[in-house]
Amino acid sequence: KVNRLHAKVRRQRQDQIHKMTTGMTERYDESVIEDLNVSGMVKNHKLARSICDTGFHQIRRMLEYKWAQKGRKLSVTD
Length: 78
Fold this sequence. Notes:
The chain is an alpha+beta fold. Helices cover 67% and strands 13% of the residues.
């Protein structure tokens, strides 16, 4: 039962990330994202769980391949 609940939450997160990144690629011709130091952010124990739950790497990965498919410009800044 616990595994099914975890899988459901994972699918919901993936669905929301897909919808967000697809909407961004359809609305904008160019975008800039920040290169975050997630491993440094996780060291803050009060925020670690929230930061890990957001899936920054997955969001960035999806943005990169979706923007490349559309032939649009995605810049990464420090």
